[in-house]
Amino acid sequence: MGKLHIVGGGAIGSLIAASAQKNGVPYDCYPRDRKSMPSWAQWQDGQTTMLKPAKFAPVALAETDVLILPLKVYQLKAALLQWLPYLTQQPTVVLLHNGMGGLEAATELLGCDYPLLLATTSHGALKVKASTGDVYVQYTGVGATQIGAPDFGTGTPQTLTALSASAPQLANAIAMLDTALPPVQYQDDILKALWTKLSVNAVINPLTALHNIQNKYIADTEFEQSRNAICDEFTQVANACGLEFDAQTVHKNVLSVAKATGENFSSMHQDVAHGRQTEIDAINGYIVEMAKKKGIPVPENTLLVERVKALSL
């Protein structure tokens, strides 16, 4: 078995590390700031799991290893450039982030024939500072991870069994992740799954950040007009990009996720609350960028990008 190498000290990466520790999967963590790296995890039943000490610098990886990048899209390029000299054996790289644009950044540096997986997760996790000053990660919501290989025009295997036959390295990486933090579900059309996640993030993230609210309040009637406008614009752009979405279904899914994660604060809300750079460019900004290429007006998404950026001025 190879080893999971988790870049960054964020909540989701730390959750993967803690679950790997719990389930006996070898792993190492590589945070930018070791002081902000959680030292333990608290599960929903109150149990805790201690994490291994973080590593200082990248190491050469074996082909059987898996490099996981649960980062912000704007952090990806710098992280990949740092790791590039250590990827000569071409270990599997997993991109796990909100929004879009990561695939473009990765293929620019790694090329289209690199063993690459795209993933999106609905697990909920939050970094918390204890009264002692220690940082820990709290598991806030059980979810699932969807994963798949990008389609560069040659088609992707429709099942995990078919992937095992044509790309065993990728299938082994998925199996390792499923052992570490289950369930991990293979998607032959991972792009559709990523766009679906984008539709949810495009509504919940900016509105919770702008109005300083938990996810559940997105379902309130005061946000109905904005929700509908975002979903309508998203659907027009996604369909123009070759996908198939229905605005009503998109809206219904957004409400479902908002209610299911009701007590959570979105990642963008947390970024604004802590004075960090947001992912607005990779979420609503990506919709605006694609809309420009297709000649589609998207005034609601454009306004949200401007308003969220104004928060950090």
Describe how the helices and strands are arranged.
Elements lengths: L3 E4 L3 H13 L3 E4 L9 E3 L5 E3 L15 E4 L3 H11 L8 E5 L5 H9 L5 E6 L2 E6 L5 E7 L3 E4 L11 H7 L1 H13 L3 E3 L3 H22 L12 H17 L6 H14 L6 H7 L10 H11 L4 H13 L2
Helix pairs in contact: 2-3, 4-5, 6-7, 6-8, 6-9, 6-11, 7-8, 7-10, 10-11
Quick overview of this protein structure:
The chain is α/β, with parallel strands linked by helices. The chain has eleven helices and eleven strands.
Question: Could you list some keywords that capture this structure?
Answer:
313 residues; alpha/beta; seven-stranded mixed sheet; four-stranded mixed sheet
Overview of this structure, please?
By secondary structure, the protein is α/β, with parallel strands linked by helices. The chain contains eleven helices and eleven strands. Strands 2-1-5-6-7-10-11 form a seven-stranded mixed β-sheet, with helices on both faces. It has a four-stranded mixed β-sheet with strand order 4-3-9-8, covered by helices on one side. Strand 1, helix 1 and strand 2 form a beta-alpha-beta unit. Helix 2 packs parallel to helix 3.
- End-to-end span in angstroms? 47 Å
Rounded Rg = 19 Å
Neighbour order of strands in the largest sheet: 2-1-5-6-7-10-11
Taken in chain order, the helices and strands follow as: EHEEEEHEHEEEEHHEHHHHHH
**Poorly predicted ranges:** none
Tell me, rounded to a whole number, the average pLDDT.
94
Which descriptor suits the 3D outline? globular
Helix content: 40-55%
Q: Which structural category do the helix and sheet elements fall into?
A: alpha/beta
Strand portion = 15-25%
Helix tally equals 11
* Number of E-state strands: 11
The largest pleated sheet is described as:
7 strands, mixed
